[in-house]
Specification:
Length: about 100
């Protein structure tokens, strides 16, 4: 019931990521799968929490893809300029850029 106590979707994703990095995720497989399933089905209705957040979008993208969910790469078009490069305003978002790199 570790993930059940967390309300914020970003905090849930960060907790799942931390559990995976520590090698403890196998203890919480059912909870992780249930949480990701809920996030996957509610992606459109809950998109507001990550709209301007490259870190949250990349983290969700990576975790869902790692667990076999189909997520279109078009979720990143908001963060691209007219030429197709990452917006220059995101150059200082190191956490977001690192997660984008990990997701690719």
């Amino acid at each position: 019931m570790m993930l059940g106590n967390v309300v914020d979707p970003l905090e849930k994703l960060e907790l799942i990521d931390t559990l995976q990095r520590l090698g403890l995720s196998y203890h919480f497989e059912a909870e992780i799968n249930n949480t990701l399933k809920n996030l996957s089905t509610d992606r459109i209705s809950t998109a507001a929490w990550k709209k301007d957040n490259l870190y949250a979008t990349a983290l969700e993208f990576r975790l869902l893809r790692q667990h076999g969910y189909k997520v279109d790469q078009d979720v990143f078009t908001y963060f691209m300029d007219d030429v197709g490069n990452i917006k220059s305003s995101l150059n200082q978002d190191f956490k977001g850029l690192l997660n984008l790199y990990e997701a690719s």
